# Entry
Amino acid sequence: MRIHIHGSDEIRSSEITPERIYMNRRRFVGRAAKLAAAAAVSPSLLACAPSPGRSEELSDSGGSGEAGRSGAPGQSGIQERDWSAVRSELDEPLTRYEDVTTYNNFYEFGTGKEDPAKNAHTLRPRPWSIAVDGEVARPAIYDLEDFVSPHRLEDRVYRLRCVEAWSMVVPWRGFPLADLIRRVEPTGKARFVEFTTLHDPEQMPGQRRGVLDWPYVEGLRLDEAMHPLALLATGVYGRDLPNQNGAPLRLVVPWKYGFKSIKSIVHLRLTEEMPATAWAVAAPREYGFFANVNPEVDHPRWSQARERRLGQLRKRPTLMFNGYAEQVEQLYAGMDLRRSF
Ligand code: MTE
# Structure
């Protein structure tokens, strides 16, 4: 992993091998039709299932297989930083800004990958307040600005691996969740952190449909939440988060499946008990509390051994803990990762 501190000029250089493999559109359309038919038969497939081939469609329209193109000024207007020079340690190009912000999972705005970008304009990310309470010495309700301003924002390039077997490489802007937790002083009873998304069907029309038991809730064990990789993000590509990516504040936990990275957070609660999280409640056989990326434990309905990077055609092997094993595996020492999925 490389961490880029916002404002510094430190850039770790590495060679990027462009991948220029373009899809066969007819094959894509055929596969999409098959998946759509399967979704019609099984409503649960629709709830959290691989989307039919949008990644290939994206690479067809220009691709993000090359670092020099990722987030290039012009189309996206991203000019604050030469993002083409910001590279992740694994010699991987960044996923294009256009792809990061138009291929989303945010069921509060619809279950299609393109729905959030189309529909999330109804979300009002400012003014915004965030409550922090439970097992803390300093419970408080903060305005977004007061919540964020004591912290130094950093740009960090992380891989994001969705449970649906697609992935991206994203330059987030944010601050360590651990810094916030220290600020509110956990009591000796605190063992977990529960995160809750805004619940407001006016702003989030998808909450009128019973896809999940709203609001979306996620959780981490306290030691996971204190891990330096766990990030509270306010931005992407150096800009404020677009609504569809979870404005104004989201979690990013890069060694876990993407559904742990809860969006548009309004409440953090430190608890003694393990939180009941949205996907684990909705489908307990399919989604566990830990949700660590693990190529050896398949989802009951598909393999987790490989993944498709957005903008690239060829699948790649999925890495244990999404490539962050060295940093995080000690958190799970002695745990049976098959049972505690
Ligand atoms: N948070 C909320 N509130 N609602 C959601 O539907 N989807 C999750 C996660 N956070 C989701 C959410 C899933 S499944 C993934 S893969 C990531 O957000 C996707 O983040 P992205 O759209 O920014 O790529």
Summary: The pocket of MTE is lined by residues 104-108, 160, 162, 197, 216, 245, 258-259, 261-264 (CB under 6 Å). Residues 1-80 have pLDDT under 50 and may be disordered.
